[in-house]
What we know:
Distance between the termini: 44 Å
CATH superfamily of the largest domain: Alkaline Phosphatase, subunit A
Number of helices: 16
Number of strands: 15
Largest sheet: 7 strands, mixed
Radius of gyration: 23 Å
Amino acid sequence: MHSTVPVKPQVRTKLTVKQTQHKNNSEDKFKLSILFIGLDSVSRLNLIRTMPKTMSHLHRTGWFELRGYNKVADNTFPNLMAILTGLNLDQIKKNCWPTKDSQLDDCPYIWYDFSNQGYVTAFGEDITKMSTFNYHKTGFINPPTDYYLRPYFLAAESKLQLKTRDQLDICLGPTSTTEHLLRYATDFASTFRHALYFALLWINNLSHNNHNTPAAMDFRFLQFFNELSEIGTLNNTLIIFLSDHGMRFGKIRETLIGWLEERLPFIYIWIPQWFRQKYPEVAKNIVTNRDRLTSPYDLHITLKDILGRNQASDMAESIESEKNVSSINGSVGCPTCVSLFDKVTYNRSCDDAGISPHWCTCNQYQTLSTTGDTVQAAAKFVLSEIQTRLQTAVTRIPQSKKCADLKLNRLVKVRGRVHNDSKHRDYVVLIETLPGSALFEATVRRLTETDDAFQILGTVSRINAYWSQSTCVNDLILKMYCYCINP
């Protein structure tokens, strides 16, 4: 089975309308196509370890790296939605996804804005059972883009022999799922090389459950980027090669470097040479931003920036008058975020970048003893918060009655920092609970110095696997906390 890229009738109509609108000018050659290639759960440091050939190629050929790119939420969905919508998870639930059973069609995805400007759009992932918009979600009722790969992968998984590794279907027939997606990317880019397109292609199976497996595809990714160059994609396309976060569970995650890596995914950006020449400040600013704090919200605003430049190009009387286009910064999820084409301030805080304290890598913590009364009280507070969430769920999710009452087995690690105002003290607390030997990590704030009043800053992370422990519940959040028992 092969995923092909035929020019669909509705796409041909879209391209014909756009050609009619621009038959007497050449504005489109001064616009960028957009290609996202995502690789799930790969930190910047793990890309260095596992894909040195690819890394060397990207550096040698002039790609821009952002070394301070910090995730804003736990898993793929909210981090990707920050890029696509500029909203945080609470805002998404309020505006377009009120329940987990609601369809996801009505969210303000930026690919709709590109489609309205005449772009051909595509979205695809290489997995169906754990895909970003379908894992414990309804997903899309209608295809969200002109080209949507989920129907192909559903058919391929049902008709072809599967090969499983690390509990993921890594091969469909004789071909790896990664190969399927990379071939589709080059076919799509080649088919629409003379048109404008927005494509987001996301690879899960290769790297989601094992931080070593990207090494197996290092040479293939090197070939892939060379293929994009050969078919001319680098001449007209902004290419974003990125991950959503680092490894979120496993032994590496129990280390300090693992804590950092989870929060610091890799991101490389290719900008065509003509765009660098037309907007010299863009290349200068993105080099400056390399070692500054950035987030997925900044990437969303960069896409808005490109949309704005496209509109300016349509209205500009001359190329020269377009050079001083200024971007519109800020999004609903992060009002203080900026386009990556603009200069990020050197002293930017996590709050400025839309990053909560639990995910912020800028704070310096010191390792503390686990025997102190205050840290033991913080550990018990984390457990009580988990228990409260489980008990609250009993009324709305009957299956949660099958979850065991958790007990604190031990405080594994604790790190602390004092704020500049000395009024608050924050702790990163790692506890182990029974039954199930679950490892939970939380960022906790001690509110006063006189008593042990605490506050959870953000979510409580589960940092070891829970494959078979929580099969009795079908709620994405509760699955992290629940240890199933017989009813």
